[in-house]
Input
Amino acid sequence: MIPSDLRFHKEHEWVRLDGKRATVGISDFAQDALGDIVFLDLPKVGASVKVGQQIGEVESTKTTSTIYTPVSGTVSQINTELKDHPEVVNSDPYGKGWIAVIELADLGEVDQLMTASQYEAFLASQKH
Output
């Protein structure tokens, strides 16, 4: 189930908006494709980021994948719990497995991201 309150980037990151704060994580599809996550390289608090920029990496037992930011702004918080428990991204990608909080530079950028139903259609189109 894809939460309807999220917006999605084509690289499978999600955004949950709270005013000008955007919580970012990777989708259930992404964590499933990666397999067992063993390490996350998280962005630095205070880092200035732009849409589409690499902000970290996810390492799994199968591969390493880049984490891209779906929005521009300043990283205000990271999920330090993931340093010791990266597997939380597998078990709860839309909840406790969040990666970072970004203070948005431009609220309008969120409108460029896919809605949950658009993301579902995007995933379906990728299977062909």
In short: The mean pLDDT is 96. Helices lie at 28-34, 81-84, 88-91, 116-126.
